[in-house]
Specification:
mainly beta, Porin, about 40% strand, disordered N terminus, Acyl-CoA_hotdog, Thioesterase-like superfamily protein, HotDog_dom_sf, TesB_ACOT8-like_N
Length: about 260
């Protein structure tokens, strides 16, 4: 079973209030869209979701698959109206490049580039592939005793393995928009932002904030849960870079990478 761009995740009875009101590129955040860093800022992952929504809405028809999305979060995003604009930088027969800008009060606050590739070709074997980690299902992992606020999503962590592997499941518990189900691409684009806190968390607190996130998808996720498997992490002179493999309940779907600075 493979998800397509326009498929929507199954509705949930425990779903919370939508994060935004609005449509067609203009969105108003509700109070719970706030960042964990400040109640006066919008969480960056949600802006990535809005940008993915606009790319889908206007540019991802005709069998094009969003294979890569790089989002630069170069300014704090104030809690207020957000405008999303898109432009096509390349409209080839097999490759489409879409640039997306998020602005607040006319000031650009984030920029994304989406590479969409024409899907449908037959896969051919390659000489090497990694041994794929098969994670326990989210339902088999106990939720944390102390739950985070609903608007920060739900995380279920596995105990680190003997070889140092860390793995955690994440899902949103509120929809992005009122009356519109989150699509697989939106789910993945929002979840990818968690690569930084997942890899940069200290013993008792998170002291790094990510400046970007790059998402690679060989296929779109099925379902609400996105799994994070640590692959790489390095810090030098206050700059942290990290990479996670991404999973859904069927297996690997791609990777997410991030660069972060001390908060």
């Amino acid at each position: 079973m493979t998800a397509t761009v326009r498929e929507v995740a199954e509705p949930r009875s425990d779903i919370g209030e939508p994060f935004f009101d609005g449509a067609d590129g203009h969105y108003e955040p509700r109070p719970h869209a706030r960042s964990p860093w400040s109640e006066n800022l919008v969480h960056g992952r949600l802006v990535s979701g809005l940008m993915a929504h606009e790319v889908e809405r206007t540019h991802l028809a005709d069998g094009f698959h969003p294979a890569r999305m790089t989002t630069d979060l170069f300014r704090p995003i104030p809690m207020g109206p957000i405008d999303i604009t898109t432009s096509v930088r390349r409209a080839g027969r097999r490759v489409r490049i879409v640039e997306v800008q998020a602005s607040a009060d006319g000031v650009p606050v984030a920029l994304a580039s989406v590479q969409a590739l024409l899907s449908g070709a037959e896969s051919t074997p390659v000489t090497w592939a990694p041994v794929e980690y098969r994670a326990p299902t989210p339902e088999s992992v106990a939720p944390p005793v102390k739950q985070a606020p609903r608007h920060f999503g739900e995380v279920r962590r596995l105990e680190p393995s003997g070889d140092g592997r860390k793995f955690a499941w994440f899902r949103e518990t509120c929809p992005l928009l009122d009356g519109v189900g989150d699509t697989p691409f939106q789910i993945a684009s929002m979840a990818a932002d968690w690569v930084s806190p997942f890899t940069n968390m200290g013993a008792t607190s998170l002291n790094f904030i990510n400046a970007d996130v790059t998402l690679y998808l060989s296929r779109l996720p099925i379902g609400k849960w996105i799994g994070f498997e640590n692959l790489d992490h390095k810090i030098d002179n206050g700059v942290a870079v990290s990479v996670c493999a991404l999973h859904d309940e069927q297996g690997r779907i791609g990777t997410a990478a991030s660069a972060a600075l001390p908060y």
